[in-house]
Amino acid sequence: MTLEVLVCGGAGYIGSHAARWLAEAGHRVTVLDNLSTGHREAVRWGELVAADIRDRQALDRVFAARRYDAVMHFCALSLVGESMARPYAYYDNNVAGTLTLLEAMRQADVQRLVFSSTAAVFGMPQQALIEEDHPAAPINPYGASKLMVERMLADAALAYGLRSVALRYFNAAGATPSAQIGESHSPETHLIPNALRAAAGTGDPLRLFGNDYPTRDGTCVRDYVHVDDLAAAHAAALDYLDGHAGAHRFNLGNGQGFSVLEVTGAVREVTGRELPFEWQPRRAGDPPTLVASSARAREQLGWNPRYTDLREIIATAWRWHSHPRF
User: Fold this and answer.
1) Domains of the chain by start residue, with CATH
2) Is the distance from CB of 192 to CB of 172 less than 8 angstroms?
3) Is 88 a catalytic residue?
4) pTM reported for the whole predicted model
5) Looking at 13, 68, 142, 224, which residue is catalytic?
6) Distances from the Cα of 71 to the Cαs of 163, 164, 184, in angstroms?
7) Which of 54, 213, 216, 260 has the fewest Cβ atoms within 10 Å of its own Cβ atom?
8) Regarding beta strands 171-173 and 129-130, do their DSSP bridges make them parallel or antiparallel, or are they unpaired?
């Protein structure tokens, strides 16, 4: 069955991969993005509408122009450090913007939403392997804003019958195998792209934060999940909503953790290059280990990540960073 899907934030990293996945599955895609952090060049699957989710009039025009079966929502400010310095901006964009989108969807009688959430809703982990029922206690405005939206979706399910899935990502990484689109942020805060830029000589020496954690090599351990696997999860979530009313939450991760030093070692192996780096003190709020249990997504969504090898994930990213398109 062909669906009309509005992909809000579809010019961004994960949103553009989801748009590609949907289009290649035969669905019709419209991308809505204000292009503040997204890239016009990443919109290769479907029409682009340059608009902001906080602009109710623009949303009403979009929903009046076409009947949509579902919305995927990736629009967010997403830098943890910035959220600490500019919390009002994060609550305005991530919470108020989502509320405006939900109200426009209700007016247009669009009853299905897949929402891009985050592992940041959990805060400091109380256990190494995080399941969905782990206490949610975010320690920064970014995570708090996403958790607020999850609560809004639960309330909307009860009051208005909205069907939704919130997907809590851990560390998105990689790029399409064809290197058509990839990860391009400014500023870039993620380990793998910064390591690849350092190896390529197009970025500063890599800064590594802390080597005295209680882990196998003293550096933080994180769960890296390939962006195409995330896109596949969004498509599976859309199918899931056909038969499941209410608001649902799923963790998305690889299920295994890799340390910072294991990542840098894999970058050297994949690129065949030296990796200049410098040690920095620990960053406040960085837990030693953060790894997802994705058992619920596997069981209920039928989601099985294709990319489980760290080197393969990095290799797809390296192909993109070797010849970036935007």
Assistant:
1) 4-173+224-252 (3.40.50.720), 191-223+255-322 (3.90.25.10)
2) no
3) no
4) 0.95
5) 142
6) 11, 10, 24
7) 216
8) unpaired
